[in-house]
Amino acid sequence: MLATLPGSGATGGFRVTADTTPGIRTSGTASGTPGRSGSPGKSGVAVQLPPPFAPRTLLSRALAVPLVLGLSCFLPLVVISQPGEGPRDAAFWLQVVLTVYCGVRLSAMVLTTRRKLLQATFWMFCYMAMGVAPLAQAVIGRVPTPVVGPREDLVQAVSLVLLGCFAFDVGALLARYRPLLHRRTRGEAPRPTGGSGAGERGPAGAGPAMRPLLIHRGRLLLLAVAAFACGGLLIVKLGGPAVFFSSRQEIIAGIEEAGVSGDGSQAGQAFLRGFGTVPPLIALLVYTRWLVTSRRARRTWSVVAVFGALLVLNAIVNNPVSNPRYWFLTVLFALLFTAFPVSAAMYRMSLTVGVVVALLVFPFADRFRYDENNTRQIETTSFLEPLALKDYDQVGMFANTITYVESGQGHSYGYQLAGSLLFAVPRSVWPDKPSDTGVTVGEWMGAVNTNLSSPVWAELWIDFGPVGMTMGMAAVGYAAARVDRRVARRAVRGSPPGSLLLITAPLLAGYSFILVRGPLLQATGRVAIAALCLALIATYRRDRGTLLD
User: Residue 348's pLDDT is what?
Assistant: First the structure.
């Protein structure tokens, strides 16, 4: 708004036009000279000012230095200073460089002005699983999974992880730029300089690809019904809700008694648990966003009642007692990022607290994997020992994968990836269908427990070698950055409650812990189920009766 202040001087006066719009200041001109900013006939020249300092901005700047120093310098130094028997060779110092690099990148994700969900969770995983934990293992000289090859293979593995991180950053950097030809073929208009609809849709006549996908209200009811049916079937098959609060060992025993995991196959178990957990979670995410962003929904008793019932159902089928820890991380992060779609404070707190929990609590969070008679009690004298004894075997398994390939097995040239993508094909139809990469390498190693990880670096390496791994990691970084940029444009106050992207991105961010950890064959089943659920409720229609309001 423009306001005219009284002028000074006897003749004609000198008037200053003040713009009360935040961030705009106008300078005075002679009376009668049309201003270059504002309505015709008014004077004044608009000058863009920097935005005023907000408390959150000051807070982020105050936290910047200690956060960067803490993640990239202080914590690695504390780990290095601990006593241990590990050799200080090339693998050790490369691991130090990798930890510092991941710490700097994670700090950048926490302090960024825009929420970058996919990139942030990637760097969080890299920092804890590929950085600090392997560094602790290198210091004390103990690993959760033996590295069967020569030390040179471990050096190569750490080097390739570092190369993959660089490639991820290059891909994310390339995502900032798109060829002009690509924009024209999609019918996009030039980006506007202001307005509330920037980036939402193109000019009139643009195809449906330019319009964001929304959630169909009627199909959402179908998804809710399917969620209750699938979740209820899982509860009945396993013998009631009490089983879900005992141990994962009891869950597996219940599945075997139900006859869905026979002949040593895991397909029936994965099918039952996938459909029993994924639809309830997605339905809960949609109703959570609907209630958070719509006052009308909060005043509608039927919506609140369905949300409450879904909350109870998820507390049973998706609780941390009966589910793997990485799946519970998916549930937790997806709910947080959905319930707080524009909160920078919650985004930063989730990442910083998540690192602490992952390093100090996560190794002990498998307390409910076994019953009391089979629980292994671990006594530790250092905070590093849990990181070396449990869970974080990703770097070591990558080294074992390199040894497996170079021992004469060779690269599979897409065979492992084909098995992951075609996971639904039964082995009766495809007898030579590949097993999980972690299982394949574990059996070659002679490991008793073949439930081993296979990080995305190892999955790409075993299929396509170092060049393919580098290009694949760059593609992952590009895709993650493109999604993050779209989310940043859509995740604003006043965005529609039924925005499908703002449901999919938090879910994918949480599930990225499982995808990056691997093996891919284990992870793709729930991805396919989630894709089916999202496709069911997706729509381009803008009819008032079909949208959430």
Answer: 84
Using DSSP's 3-state secondary structure scheme, residue 237 falls into helix
DSSP-based three-state secondary structure for 17: strand
pLDDT for 370: 52
Q: Which residues of the chain have pLDDT under 50?
A: 1-55, 57-59, 181, 184-185, 187-209, 264, 374-375
List all residues 6 or more positions away from 532 whose beta carbon is below 8 Å from its beta carbon. Answer: none
DSSP helix/strand/coil, 19: strand
Q: What is the DSSP letter of 495?
A: -
pLDDT digits (tens, 9 = 90+) for 84-131: 888 899 999 999 999 999 999 998 898 887 889 999 999 999 999 999
SS3 46: strand
| Residue of 252, 242, 286, 243 lying closest to 272 (CA atoms) | 252
d(CA 35, CA 41): 7
Whether 483 contacts 118, CB under 8 Å? yes
Length of the chain counted residue by residue: 549
b/e per residue, 342-373, with b = 16+ CB within 10 A?
A: ebbeebbebbbebbeebbeebbebeebbeeee
In 10 A of CB 492, how many CB atoms? 13
The CA-to-CA distance between both ends of the chain, in Å, stands at: 31
The Cα-based distances of 493 to 340, 362, 489, 490, 497 in angstroms read 11, 34, 11, 9, 10
Identify the H or E element spanning 73: none
DSSP-assigned letters across all residues of 38-90: SSTT---EEEE-PPPPPHHHHHHHHHHHHHHHIIIIIHHHHHHTS------SH
* Coil, helix or strand at residue 18: strand
| Tokens standing for residue 418 | 């084909």
Task: For residues 526 and 531, give the distance between their C-alpha atoms in angstroms, rounded to a whole number.
Answer: 8
Q: CA 98, CA 79: separation in Å to the nearest integer?
A: 14
C-beta neighbour count of 44 within 10 angstroms: 25
The answer to whether the beta carbons of residues 446 and 403 sit under 8 Å apart is no
Which 3 state secondary structure label does DSSP give 27? strand
Taking a C-beta distance cutoff of 8 angstroms, is the pair 498, 333 a contact? Answer: no
Q: pTM of this prediction?
A: 0.81
Helix (H) or strand (E) holding 353: helix 344-360
Q: What does each C-alpha distance from 429 to 420, 422, 433 come to in angstroms?
A: 15, 11, 9
- Could you give the CA distance from residue 3 to residue 42 in angstroms, rounded to a whole number? 9
22 contacts: CB under 8 Å, gap ≥ 6: 51, 52
Q: Where are the beta strands (DSSP E) in 42-120?
A: 45-48
Torsion angles phi and psi, residue 17, rounded to 5: -95, 120
* CA–CA dist 133, 128 (Å, integer): 6
How many alpha carbons lie under 13 Å from residue 91 in its C-beta half-sphere?
Answer: 23
d(C-alpha 313, C-alpha 424), whole Å: 27
Round to whole Å and give the CA distance between 187 and 180. 11
